[in-house]
Amino acid sequence: MAISPAGVRPEPGSFRDPANRVFHVGDEVLRGLDARAAEHWRALAGSEFFTSLLATGKVCATEVLEPARVPADSAWAAVLRHERIPFVSHPYEWSFTMLRDAALLHLEILRAALPAGFTTKDGSAYNLQWRGSAPVFIDVGSFEPVRDGEPWAGYRQFCQTMLYPLLLTAHLGVDFQPWLRARVDGIEADALRPLFRGLRRLRRGVPTHLHLHAAMQNRHAEATTTDVRAQLRAAGYSRELALATVRGIEKLVRRLEPTSSASHWNDYQRTCGYSAEDRVGKERFVAAALADGPRPRLVLDLGANDGRYARLAARHADHVVAVEQDPAVVDTLYRTLRDEGERRVLPLVMDLADPSPGGGWRGTERASFADRAAADAVLALAVVHHLAIGRNVPLPEVVAWLADLCAPGGRVVVEFVHPEDPMARRLLANKPEGLFPDYHRAEFERLLATRGRIARREELPSGTRTLYTVVVGG
């Protein structure tokens, strides 16, 4: 039975390539292909290199939709069905090593495609997503037959959304996340060049991929794409040279490392002030809260720090998104999860007081964190006091935000740090006296009750922290 057009929801982030478009029908992720893209798909599906990428999970699982299931009145020549990624994230929410591993996967795929007669027409970091700590390439529509004598069409995108952010952090110690969040198309060469003057011009990858690339762009600004291709063919540019270029970029990216920076949060478990009894009680409470009721499909761990509770949550849930503000902490957690082969926990860099907004065209091309959440359970452990006291977010706003991140009937597992707790007192010491008269347990419980049913509460042995399980809307 064909799908009704009324049930088709176009993906707001898929409109830049008219040859193919992603849309949703229920929980299914579909991709429509025009006649030329469908022809490319048939050749791609029959190639050995692509079959291998699918088998190893480096490209998202994809199959042709049966004709009877194609949406009614569809103008597409073919429709594909993709696997659904557990949680869609954006490159400015990734740590350095996450972005580097995503870049390496893209280059690996391109290196495998070229000898088989294919290339990728895009090079955007947004074409990759994550299954936990494993990157996966999702833009199947980007593959097309390679034409001898033509450069990689996605090179500029690759530089702006992956290579330049990596150079910024590796060579200058500057976190790339705010730069990527500010521009959906990435960091342009002319914006980065002023930071690499003097001896910095000679740092690894900068002369060729930043300064020379920018100079070539400026030189050929008036030339058409056809003119540039003709010039490259006349100069003897070949598929073998393109493959050598990809290998060179891959070698460069692999050697880049983040500039180390000390972080208080990297040693959180030693500095957080919990007693052994508090820690045991807290872990027991969280485990019980997640095990009580249907198995969560998605858990958000807000303020994840070193991932202790995200790992615990992964034992009781299908997928966990561990959100932490400090890029160095997220990078350490990611490397550990990756080395362990953990596929259920996705660590992300995000300031909870300034979560990712909608971005790109009309503010919807890249969905906000709130729009992507709809979690079955939210962990907010030792985070409320940082928002309410440390960042001056009104307590009612904090409670409302936590509840809104949950799907109806979801659970919020939240920790309230009392004003007399040492950590709360440390934050209050830097604030004017009497600034937070409503920051106390009775008011917090009253606010929780307005958003759901308090199913369970437990005071930790220290006596200055209380845990709650709230069923949202219950």
Automatic annotation (TrEMBL):
Gene Ontology annotations of biological process type:
methylation
Q: What is this protein called?
A: Methyltransferase domain-containing protein
From what organism does this protein derive? Micromonospora globbae
Pfam family membership, one: Methyltransf_23
Q: Which UniProt keywords apply?
A: Methyltransferase, Transferase
Record lineage:
Bacteria, Bacillati, Actinomycetota, Actinomycetes, Micromonosporales
Name the SUPFAM superfamilies for this protein.
Answer: S-adenosyl-L-methionine-dependent methyltransferases (SSF53335)
For this UniProt entry, the molecular function terms from Gene Ontology, in alphabetical order, are: methyltransferase activity
